[in-house]
Each structure stands twice: as C-alpha cells, then as structure tokens.
Amino acid sequence: MMKRQDFAGLPALIRLALRRDRTRLIVWFVVFTLMVVAIAAGNGDIDPAERLEMIRNTVTNPGMRIMLGPVNPEMVGNLGAFFLIRMSFLLTIVLALFSTGTVLRHTRHNEETGCHEMLGAMVTGRFAALSAAIIVAMLGNGLLGLGLIIGLLASGVVFTGTLIAGLTYVLLGFIFTGMAAVTAQLSSSTRGAAGLAHIGLAIVFMVNAIGNVSGTVLPDASGYDSAWPVWLSPMGWAQQVAPYDVARIELWLLFIVLFIGLIAAAGILVNRRDVGQGILAARAGKKTAAPWLKGSFGLVYKLERISFLAWFVPLIFIALIFGASSESYGSSMQDIDFFEEIFAASAAFFRFMLLSLGALAVTVFAVGTVLRLRAEENGGPLEAVLATPTHRSRVLLAQVLFAWVAAWLMMMVMALGIGVSAGVDAAGMAELIRAALRQYIGIVLVSGGAVACFGFLPRQATLLSWLVVGVAALTGPFLGPILNLPDVLQSFSPFTHIAIMPGEASHNILVLLILVAGVATGLGFLGFSRRNMAF
Amino acid sequence: MSVIEIKNLTKYYGKFKALDQINLTLNEGEVLGFIGPNGAGKTTTIRILLGLLRKSDGDVHLFGKDAWQDAVDIHRHIAYVPGDVHLWPNLTGGEVIDLFGRLGGGVDPARREALIRMFDLDPSKKCRTYSKGNRQKVGLIAAFASNAELIILDEPTSGLDPLMASIFQSCVEEAKQAGRTVLMSSHILADVEKLCDRVAIIRRGQIIETGSLSAMRHMTRNTLEVETVKPVEALHTVEGVHGLKAQGNHYVFELDHDKMDAVMQILVSHGLRHLNSSPPTLEALFMRHYGDDLSGKTKSRRSS
User: Fold this and answer.
1) Which CATH code is given to the segment(s) B2-214?
2) DSSP output for B98-130
3) For residue A282, which residues of chain B lie inside 8 Å, CB to CB?
4) Is the Cβ pair A299, B99 closer than 8 Å?
5) Superfamily of domain B216-303
C-alpha cells in the first residue's frame, strides 16, 4: 500500500525544512550545549558530602522525586550520573518542546497557512511532507544529543556512559517526534495539535513521577528503586537505562518499537484524512450566536473555555492523586526509624511543593492566554473587532481578566483538591489556601510581564514573554537549587521570593511583588492603547 | 457635513513614507471608489481612518471627530470589512455575524436573514471550513445588516464569484439609496465604474487624481474613429491628436478634450463620412495613471 511515489519530492522538502530551520536549529544546539556545560560545571562544584546529602533528601522526601529520577549511592562519585538524574526532567521537556515544535511547523502549520497546498500541488507524495518533518526533527534531536555529549565530555565525564546517555536521550526525543506526528493528524489546528502533544508529555511525565514517588527505599536510605509505573513511560525508560551504572542499552529496543509504532500510526492517519482537515470531522454549529456571546468578555469565554478545561481538569486529577499519596508514604517507610521524625514535615512539604509546581503550570496557561491576543492581532480577526465601537482596553481587559480569574480558580481548586484528598484538618486547609494565594501573586506578576510586552513590543511579545516564563522557572525554587545557580540568579524569579513553604516569604516582599505586577500590567494597557496595531 | 475629512495626512513606517500629504473628503450619501496599484497606501489609509494605525502628520476626521482620539465613538457609526477577512476558526459564520452585530450598533434580524439567503451562505459552518469568498461574505453580511452610516470596504469583491459580485453591487446600491456613505477600495474597475459617484486614485502614497468619473473623463481624451471622403494630410501633426492609426481614409486616434472643436473643423472640411467618439473607460484612466511616471513627460511619450 506504500509506494515509492508516495515519497516523491522528499529530498527537496527536507532541504526546504532545513533551509527554513537553519537559524532555529543552530540556536537550539548552541543554547542547549551551553546550558549542559553550565549546569554540569555547577554540579561538578558540589562536593561528595553535599551530593550524598542531596541524594538522602531525595530518598527521604517523595516530593523531590517528582523532579528527580531514581538515585543511588554510586552517584556520589559520578558526575555524569548525578547530573543526568537531576536533569532528566529538564532534558525531557527540552526534547519534547523541540520535537513537537519542529514536527508541527512542517506539517500542520503548513497546512493551516496554505503553504502545504502549494507544495502538495507539486511533485510531492502523500507521505513526503510528514516524512520530511520527522526526518528533520530526528536530525535536530541528534544535534541536541550531540550537544549533551559535548557538554558532558567538556566537564570531564567518562566517555562510554556519556555516549550511551546522549543516544538514550536522542531516542527519547524520537518518541516525542512520533507523538507530534500523530497529534498533527488528529487536530485540524496547530494549536490543537500542540495541545495534544503537550498533554502527551504531561502524561509521560506524570506516569514516571508516580512510579518514582511510590518507589521503595533502599534499606540504608542511600537510594531508592522506582515502582512499576515507570515502565509505562518513555521518560522512565530513559532514567532506567542508567548509562553510567548498569547501562541497560537493551532498553533502547523499547524506544525503537514505540517510535516505529507511532510513525506507523501517523502514516495510517495521514492517509485517512483530507489535507487541511483533522481526523475528527468538523460538525455543523449554531446558526445564530448564543445570547451571552455579545462583547469582548463573552468572546474570550467562547474562545478560551476549551483551553481552560484542558488545563483545569488535569490539574484537579494531579492534585487529587498526589494529594492522596502524600499521606501514604508513611506505610512504606514506617519500619525505618530514620524517617519517623521527618515524615510529618515531609508530607506537608510535599503538598506545598505540589502547589508551587502547579503554579508554574498555571503560569504557562496564564501567559499563553494573554498572548493569544497577539495571535488575534497578527493575521487574526482583531482588526475587524477594533473597527467596531469596542475600546482596545476592553479587549485586553477581557483577555487578562479571563487569564487571572481562571488561574485563580485553578490554584484554589488545586489547594482544595490536595487538602481534601490528603485529609488535612481545617487549619491545614487554610494554610494550603494561603500558600496557593501566595503562588498566585507570582502567576499574576509573570503574566503581567506578558501584558507589558504585548503593550509595548508586540512583535517580540511572544518570544520575550516565554523568555520571562523560562527565567522565572529556571531560577525558581525547584530548578534553581537543582541547577545549583548562585543566589543572585535565583533571586530573578518571583517564585524564589514567594518560596515554597509558608512563613519563608516576607510580607513586604509579597506587597512589592503585587505592586510590580500592577505596574507592569498597567503599563501594558497604556502601551496597547497608544501604539499602532501590528498586523 | 463631510463624513470623512483627511487633510495633509502623512504616514511613515520607519523611514519609509507610506502616505504623503493625502487630502480626501467624503460627503454624506456619497460612494467613493478608492483605487490604486498594490502597495500604493489604500489599506494604510483605511487603517488610519479606523484608528488602528497612528498618523505621522496631518488631520483625519470622521463625523467631525478625530480618527485616533475618538475611535470608539466613531466606530458606532461605521461598518468595516477588511481586505483579508480573518475569522475565528472555531466559531460558525452565524455566530460571527451576530457577534459583529452586537459589538457594533446591532443587527436587523430580518435583513440578516435576507442577506444570508441572498449571499447563499451556510451560517452553521465553522469559519475554518469557509473559503476566502465565504469568509468575505460573512464580513459583508455583517456590514450590510448593520445600521452603520458609513461602510468601509477594502477590496470587497476580490474573492466573490460574478453572481455574488452582482449581489454585492445591489447591496451597495441599496445602501446608497438609504442615504448611507460608502468608501470602497477595489481593483475591480467595473464595480467602481458602476457604483461610485467619485473616484480617488492613489499611487505611491499620493492622491494623484480625484473627482467624479465624468469630470475625470473631461480632463482626458476621447477615442475617435472617423472616415473622411478626402484623405486628411498630416493629421498626426495637428495639436491634440495622439496615437494616430490610419488605414486609407479611416483614422483612429485619441483627442484632447479642449481641441475637439478645432479638429472637428478640419475633419468636416475633408468631408466627414463616419464618426464614432467614445469616452475613456476607467480602465484607460487607470492604466494611464498607473503606468506613467508622475512627470508629464512620459505621458506624452506614451500617447504619441
């Protein structure tokens, strides 16, 4: 059923994609390699005693295991292994974002803009565009893997293990490439396809986290073994390869089989749908608008509610699942005296950490929602909306308020979900809600920064805003310490000042953060009402 | 009171001068055709009128109010259809028409239904499934179903089939009858010729001609086709005669308007057997203005 002519034009399409992506690929490669070098150097500065301490922390604190992979005593003396297990979260996200972006850029996005129509009319086969996207994404993943290897070798890590590590993460990138190839067929919009792919990433991450959190601790508390759910997640496979230790390269087979399966699925789907359409056929809608769809606020609700639910529902589940599990670590650790005293504190810390981690996710939602207005402006319907008697500030206000109210709801429901499922008392619940509100300040601040970017630098707003989100996350209270960043850098993130635990943030700082958020947002409104529209 | 009043409008994009001292007036009840080659500044002018872009210099007033300062007030009286109609992919055409109606001054439900029927639009389809022409229909239905006093249309017929284009024409005529003012930019000269009371031609950011079509025609040449009994010696040397093509005693040439009388006397003295005089089409005007350099030199070279 697959013919040679189905791939006609493939070399030309690969060259086209490489030409379009040459700057993008180089930037990803250079930034990624520098990141690896910097982080590995930072980790190299940690002395063995401290490393042992960090490993102990991870073992005794299940909350830490959401972010960190399975640790063991060997890692004290091995920088590569130490680095890899601390970095696996970041590496996975980088590879997933890169792969999804690359595949969708050359498939679904091309169809959406109509470029695919022109290419399809030339001598190109049915599978050519998809294959070109996959091949370019694979090449890109190869480049990132090379960056990882170069970065680690530059820090003096042993060669064999590093090579295995690099190849393992390249294979993990292939999985995300395959996932994006499938989601590109399912949804008829780039945004929808990216959303589905990111949900896939979230599942991969969560399943692995569940496996690690519920792992069994080694008798001397010097490490832990992951539980079975990690075998359901490619991220878990990558961690279980343990390149510097047991080096289970036979696990590569799992990656290869799954990758081939995903590619085959994408190939079958691409054959069963029409160009420009998804697998799910568009249904007829309403002939008239609902009564509430009448102003900027109704419009934002109509446009954003699906996106809201796509974030809201998973967050509830995460809150319930991890909240419930926060109290159950006791059973697995009871027999170890060592844990008795720190257990109570650790369960609470785990809950606050969940909230703080959730706040990062909600920040991504809030900033994405604000930036949607930029997409409406640039080649979107905003021009026609502003030609009606709708004030610019009102359009922006509707967008920002939706983002903030939705974010507030998410934080509140998360706090309630964690509290209820963990069975905390009223005082504990109040503490959780206060913590959620504190985190909310950070969300408002970062999304306020996005409003300011949108108001003053519309063309750079998207890039700048995500840069701000990236900095706030990287220098924040999770990744900052893991990356071993100096305090000065860590102070860049509002979340560092907000802190994870109650009582660690000063009242004055919080007031200051609120003020900054207000000023940034206000400036954004001022800028937007005064500037040229940038189409 | 004039509905649109543009005085010495200049707009820079960085160092590039997109509009250079534009003057334009549009009176109540008028239909103005705004024509010019691609990139001449039509859309920029329209977006400044709508307060979407800021002018660099000059005065722009609609209904006596400043286009930038009072944009929202002005928009209560305006309906606008952009050249590229972008719609929300996950809303249906019917929902978008209602939404624009509610964002603007309201929609007349009976007129909405009638227009949907006339334009043969399926309002239950999601906008992502519409073709360019269908998206344009959504914009046009929303505009004509509104009660706006001024309708601004940026290349309204570029995606419509001929049948739909003629329905569009009847909509504009109806709007004109109702005393509404229309500003439309277009490349479809037949539309402009049929619908517009006045035409403004813009080129490289400058308005190079404005006026009623008949007045514009008076300023240019008619095409004459004549046959005489006796051959007319050296007709090509006569002042006002351009582009002479002779075949025996049959002559085709263009004639300057103010030399009509003198040339007629020469022709009559040679025994006029047949005469056909046709006014320049808009297309001819258009080609002359677009094709020529702004200096009058090339103008005469082209026609001689």
Assistant:
1) 3.40.50.300
2) HHHHHHTT-B-HHHHHHHHHHHT--TTSBGGG-
3) 125-126, 128-129
4) yes
5) Malonyl-CoA ACP transacylase, ACP-binding (3.30.70.250)
